Amino acid sequence: MLSALGLSTMRRSLVGLIDWFALLCFSAGAVLVWVGWSAATFGWPAKVAQNFEKLSPGYQASMPGVEFALAVLASMAWVVLVVWRTRRAGGSGSIWRPMVLTSGGVTLIWLLLMTLWVPRLDYAKSFKQVAIQMQTAMQPTGKAGLVINPGETCIVDYGLGYPQRALMQYHSGLAFKTGLKAGKRCNYLLLQDDKRSDFAALKAFQAEHAGQWETLWTGNRNSDRHERLVLLRRIPQAQAQ
Fold it and tell me: What CATH number has the domain bearing residue 163?
């Protein structure tokens, strides 16, 4: 905000340089976003589509809808803004004209990412699918949903980070208890481990609590090849003891 006071003293050549820089950078960024969306949705260009598939395998792109219309309108607005600014480049304009293309370009890129890329990014980074898979594993019938037996509506979290715990609790609707003492009535335990450590946390837990818990399910987000979430179920004989 303090630097905005200097807009009135900027030389015309510097204003033109900033405008051309914003025009080239943000236009190229918008083209890249559209190319990425085309590759993720229609499979063209093929090489770019292959890279997207590696980042989020199994993603099923939906047909363009409201988000696509908003992205088109934002792109058209950018073209109109560029034409308007270039036609008035030689005149003595208002103090805010040097920042029109820069602020408009930032808004354009943000809108394109939020409308075109968010579904795929959400699929790759979200814990929603992981929580659904975990709930399905907890059901004897294999259908997702909350169990109603006492002790089965809570899960002990073992080594989960605060963000992972909050997201899993939100998407699953189950109550999480930190530590075995707090969750002594819970029949399930969710452990977070890392493939790069050769599942050291899981091995240490199984060695310390041998014969008390059995592995029921393992899963991870599509975009994270190293992270592993392991769901264990308490063996009834161990709970009785």
Answer: 3.40.190
